[in-house]
Amino acid sequence: RQQGIIRCCFCLEWGLMRLSSFARYMAGQGFDTWILEVRGAGLSVRGSNLKEAQQSAHGVSEQMEAVANSTTSEAFAKSATNGVYSADPQLTDFPGALSDSKISPVKKEDDLTRLATVWDESKLVTKLTETFMSLSERLSGFLSENQSKIMSAKLFDQISKLLEDSQLSEGFNEIRGKLSSLLERRQSSAIAIQIRDLSQNLVNMIEEGQLSVSPQLFDLQERLFSTIDDFQKQLDLIVQYDWDFDHYLEEDVPAAMEYIRAQSKPKDGKLLAIGHSMGGILLYAMLSRCGFEGRESRLAAIVTLASSLDYTSSKSTLKLLLPLADPAQALNVPVVPLGALLTAAYPLSSSPPYVFSWLNNLISAEDMMHPELLKKLVLNNFCTIPAKLILQLTTAFREGGLRDRGGKFFYKDHIHKCNIPILAIAGDQDLICPPEAVEETVKLLPEDLVTYKVFGEPSGPHYAHYDLVGGRMAVEQVYPCIVQFLGRYDSVS
Q1: Tell me: the pLDDT tens digits for 268-292?
Q2: C-alpha to C-alpha distance for 263 and 225, rounded to whole angstroms
Q3: pLDDT digits (tens, 9 = 90+) for 100-111
Q4: Distance CA 273, CA 6 (A)
Q5: In the predicted model, is pLDDT for residue 302 greater than 80?
Q6: Alpha-carbon gap, residue 462 to 475, rounded angstroms
Q7: 378 in helix, strand or coil?
Q8: Burial 453-473 (b: 16+ CB within 10 A, else e)
Q9: Which residues form the AB hydrolase-1 domain (predicted)?
């Protein structure tokens, strides 16, 4: 067939799709099937070539499975007195984990009368300067204009806790005020010089204060370095995971579609598209933008599975993201290591005493997925999520539904202008995107173009969020429905 199939997937929601039953099924039906994995999703890794990327991806997969297996057998031990389960600290020793910043403890000294540690002044000044420069340069435009102020205040508070002596605190607060005013300005060479000078003054002030403090603040320099290093890691993490939903929509999806067109050369220049979860949201958003701008989407038809532009009327469990909608909170947690969290929680959801068994219901309905398949899905298919992406997605749970990063464009306001056929599929026991959420978008679409289907029966089988693409009945029920619908709009059928 001449049409391409795009599956835009968030967090690589159904494994490496090349190996999945869904991809094989579509290819077996004669479709030229392509899989789109948007940036940062699932097992995405940076590699110089495909072989290197695959090897790295498999390495991450094996590592996370090993962590879960180790956790099941060793890391959770029941207390004989209170029944509390405690996790092994090694749970954070794999990619995607985010540990809390910690300050190195003060070491006990045999000789409390010795002088303070000799300062490596130039190194400390450089460290401070680089950190302050990162604040004033890198965070420009991140989340909102006031984020540099929030982040710098966080660092200053950490340093202030180290300078417990009132004399040091007084001098530090004076320098803090000057630095704060500089960090709010746009970066220039003059400001860079002032920042370095103030960093030098800060180091001098701490060094001189040390001489007058009794007893000495032992290992203060080590603790300062530790604090700065931890803070710098937070900054680097923010910069590394610096994308949101609109980046997917405006950059990733168009680039992939152009590539697919160039490779498959459809006669009419149009593609068919399938999107699960956020993949479907991306397709809806693209149609909304095209309708608003009066341009063609260059799609012949689309299928969305468990997707909506507005979750306000539903009881979706994704509302748990709402507390992270506060920018200050998001900067305290610049990314959410979802993969690491699920890997840590999996043993408690799959083994006695099943403390987190409710997590399984978010993914698959009872008896709909083979246990080993469910395990691989949980351990290998989720990733670290940027705060900016979460902040934008939380708008889907507020009045008006999902909006652009500027907060002015509401995607559902223009979805009625779409002019292509749409099959919208929901799962009857989907707790992430319930049927009522899917209906919220379906009712906005032209009646003559939309087909709405809910899979699941009162007596079973039932379909949760991932069962629509990976459940044991999907091959018999969901896939044929998709193929039949798309077949109507395949130009060479």
Answers
A1: 888 889 988 888 999 999 999 999 9
A2: 52
A3: 333 333 343 443
A4: 5
A5: yes
A6: 14
A7: helix
A8: bebbeeeebbbbbbbbbbbeb
A9: 247-466
